[in-house]
Amino acid sequence: MDIGTIVAALGSGVLIGLILGVVGGGGSILAVPLLVYGVGIGSAHAAIGTAAVAVAVNAFASTVGHARAGRVKWRCAGVFAASGMIGAAIGAEIGKAIDGQRLLALFGVLMIGVGLSMLRKRRTLEAPNVRLTRDSAATLLPRLIPIGLTVGLAAGFFGIGGGFLIVPGLILATAMPLPYAIGTSLVVITALGLTTATSYIVSGLVDWPVTALLVAGGVVGTAIGMLLARPLATRKNLLERGFAGMVIAVGAYVVATSI
User: Where are the transmembrane segments (predicted)?
Assistant: First the structure.
């Protein structure tokens, strides 16, 4: 591995972690384009497998801090993750069966759609004390299970953590406040990432040296992002819109170069 590849992989990890720390999610959607066009991994499938492993490790590391702060709804996370893992296992097998260039084009379309959805204003009545109990199960389970399964399919198919899908999915299913949705989503991202990663590891579609560099860069980027998050909190809407614009632009580039 040459110096340029090492620097590109570390830099990609730092960028993904930085976005995760500042915006609270979404950095993983840039992982595959960064690996293909920045690091130079020639196979879209290898890029997806590598990204899945790195995303799972970084999400697990980030979960610890949120759990200590009490921002994880564990029972909701467990149900969402269990149904999502089934979807991710199915999605990963479908993704591996599709031509690499076509998969990249579909990934680009997904990025554009996600970016546009991030620009929409969300108006939801919050339920900060929501809990999955015997009494609330009849209301919450019919929402958590199908949404988790659908998000898992997308996460497995595209090899992404899916935080940008999981967070709104959890809010839609339970009305939990955003900070809790972010903390809870990291548990789900870890589970879905491990499911997708296992499928690609078994198929030999993971570049382990690049994975290690992505994880190392991600740790540094997340630490920096968390330090910047507080002073930038007043401009979070602007940051999210800027990130959405970047996701749309990168998605359009991926589609254009894959067709």
Answer: 6-27, 34-60, 72-91, 103-120, 140-173, 180-202, 208-229, 238-256
